[in-house]
Amino acid sequence: MARPVVGYAVSITIDGSVQSQGSASVLFKDDLFVEHLKEEEAIAKVRSEVNSLPAGVDEKFPDGKLILAEEIEEGHVSFSSLKLYFSALGGDRPILFFSAIAIGLLATDLLDATMTWYLGYWASQYEDHPASEEAFQAESLNRINQYTRAARTFHNLNRWISVRIDFISGLFTASLATYLVYFQNQKASNTGFALNMAGNSLERIQGYIDIEQEPKPTQRGVPPAYWPASGEIRVENLSAKYSADGPNVLHDLSFTIQSGQRIGIGESNQPELLSGTLRQNLDPFDQYDDATLNDALRAAGLFSLQSEMDEGRITLDSSISGGGSNLSVGQRQILALARAMVRGSKLFILDEGRGKA
């Protein structure tokens, strides 16, 4: 593309060293340089063919935006939010809870109606039977004494609990209002409105519950207990996209990787290490002994980088910072490889396994 306007050209290899340089007319006669240009032109042609669409087919773009409008519930509290609130009242047995409430309310009204009838029936008995004043007084005093013993204790406890609950509730509300008004630089009117409308948090909770989630696993996706029996990987007609309404980035990809075969593809990332000791990183659930862990470190090549006499040598009790920030990139890769070897996995996926310490 730039050949007509190039006056001086430099050819650079992959490692950054200069392969050849000179005027464009001389450099374009170099066989290696010309072959490299042909390869680039072929790659560019293939990419243009892949990215181009057939005639008459319009390219579809996803409807999503970088910044979406905030979802705000308007109007009355939705039924789903009320259902969430009432289901939380009943706990694990909402039917039993609300049935008990309904029966209690019904029993209260029934007792009120029955009490009036019973008082009339009790008063009518004096018309048919002679009154026993002394026996009635003795029985009444006996029952009053029994009632007083229980009622006095009950009312004392009721007052003790009620006063303290009201005091704690008022203290909490006053503290919250003081914090929102004097420490958050909010107007008192806005704070009062926010406290009064705090019930709207039900809508927020319901909104978080209704967030789109990944589909739950099915029985078809559960591998057998012996899986993986070998290190072979077989992919058939794999298609993938970044979003549900986006275009496919993989189109019916099929490949097979045999057991023991090594392939390389992709770019490198940093291995992840946890904050703690090296032993906790290799065996977080304490399933293996120190001999197994040291064998994995030796097989991964850690001991070949340090000797027994090194003062700062890495051992199982060495402290590892979050993300392995106190180790070199090569040491982190070795520890990540040793962690995989401890598990005895049939398949290893190494992200740039050629890194050096």
Automatic annotation (TrEMBL):
<dbReference type="GO" id="GO:0016887">
    <property type="term" value="F:ATP hydrolysis activity"/>
</dbReference>
<dbReference type="Pfam" id="PF00005">
    <property type="entry name" value="ABC_tran"/>
</dbReference>
<dbReference type="GO" id="GO:0042626">
    <property type="term" value="F:ATPase-coupled transmembrane transporter activity"/>
</dbReference>
<dbReference type="InterPro" id="IPR027417">
    <property type="entry name" value="P-loop_NTPase"/>
</dbReference>
<dbReference type="GO" id="GO:0016020">
    <property type="term" value="C:membrane"/>
</dbReference>
<keyword id="KW-0812">Transmembrane</keyword>
<dbReference type="GO" id="GO:0005524">
    <property type="term" value="F:ATP binding"/>
</dbReference>
<feature type="transmembrane region" description="Helical">
    <location>
        <begin position="95"/>
        <end position="119"/>
    </location>
</feature>
<keyword id="KW-1133">Transmembrane helix</keyword>
<keyword id="KW-0067">ATP-binding</keyword>
<keyword id="KW-0547">Nucleotide-binding</keyword>
<keyword id="KW-0472">Membrane</keyword>
<feature type="domain" description="ABC transporter">
    <location>
        <begin position="228"/>
        <end position="352"/>
    </location>
</feature>
<dbReference type="InterPro" id="IPR003439">
    <property type="entry name" value="ABC_transporter-like_ATP-bd"/>
</dbReference>
<dbReference type="InterPro" id="IPR050173">
    <property type="entry name" value="ABC_transporter_C-like"/>
</dbReference>
<dbReference type="InterPro" id="IPR036640">
    <property type="entry name" value="ABC1_TM_sf"/>
</dbReference>
<protein>
    <recommendedName>
        <fullName>ABC transporter domain-containing protein</fullName>
    </recommendedName>
</protein>
<feature type="transmembrane region" description="Helical">
    <location>
        <begin position="161"/>
        <end position="182"/>
    </location>
</feature>
